[in-house]
Amino acid sequence: MPWPSRKRDKGVVADKKEPDAKIAKTEEETPDKEEEEKSTKPPAGSSKSGWKNWKKTKESDSGGEESKITYCHWLLKSEPESRLEKGVDVKFSIDDLKAQPNQTTFWDGVRNYQARNFLRAMKLGQQAFFYHSNCKEPGIVGIVKIVKEAYPDHTQFDQKDPHYDSSSRKENPKWSMVDVQFVRMTKRFIPLSEIKAHHLAHKEDGGPLKNMMLFTRQRLSIQPLTQEEFDFVLSLEEEKPH
Asked: What mean pLDDT comes out for the span 45-54?
């Protein structure tokens, strides 16, 4: 039986490794307002981000065409360490997902309007990074795929659930969820600190992570990724950690 409400968005805290990041308003603070597979391995180069040489390779593969800025991949945050919320442990790691029947579960408990809208935009078969959040060392640990598109989140109607919402009506549910299935672990753990280093470098040289939502809207537990963002982050699994 899947555990209730283990993925959350209401009151998401900043990752412990990111004390200097700008904190966006959360839905908890403004409850009635809208809120917020294969990749090319980047060759070693002089750019501190590895982006310039990676870009040349990608342009060569695509005939030099600029990719359209569209979101087709996702990043899903979940907490791998125990934390009680209204008496319920919201812990849910990638190992917990792997232990589910058919390695599949519903992604419930999102209580942020922008994150909910991202859930509703997800398409069958799209892939997402599984990101361990609010823990000693946050970062990307694996890949999942969307196996059922958005439908009403049943936990909003469960008075015993920590994410119960008395204002939501069954005839017009406020909150949605999707089903996700484990695809694979990343070849290595990709820590937030490493992704941030590339983000900062890309802000200087125009790389694909320059506007990555992990740093511009870091409190959101559901975040979209462009194809370039997804490909670049995935390529990091081939590199030796610094």
From this structure: 50
Q: Model-level pTM?
A: 0.77
Which ranges constitute the DSSP H helices of the chain? 51-62, 94-98, 113-121, 192-205, 213-216, 227-235
Q: How many residues does the chain have?
A: 242
CB 222 within 8 A of CB 110: yes
Q: Is 31 helix (H, G, I), strand (E, B) or coil?
A: coil
Question: Which residue type is seen at 18?
Answer: E
Q: Could you please report the per-residue DSSP string of 112-145?
A: -HHHHHHHHH--TT-EEEEEE-SSSS-EEEEEEE
Tell me how far apart the terminal alpha carbons of the chain are, to the nearest angstrom. Answer: 40
CA distance 203 to 184: 30
Measured between alpha carbons, how far is 153 from 112 in angstroms, rounded to an integer?
A: 13
Q: What are phi and psi of 46, to 5 degrees?
A: -80, -25
Alpha-carbon separation of residue 200 from 58, 112, 115, 193, 216 (angstroms): 21, 27, 24, 11, 12
What is the distance, to the nearest Å, from the Cα of residue 229 to the centroid of all Cα atoms in its chain?
Answer: 12
Query: Would you state the structure tokens that stand for residue 18, as one six-digit string?
Result: 């990111």
Distance CA(198)–CA(193), nearest Å, equals 9
pLDDT greater than 80 at residue 79: yes
Interatomic CA distance for residues 50 and 40, integer angstroms? 12
SS3 185: strand
> Does pLDDT of 66 surpass 50?
no
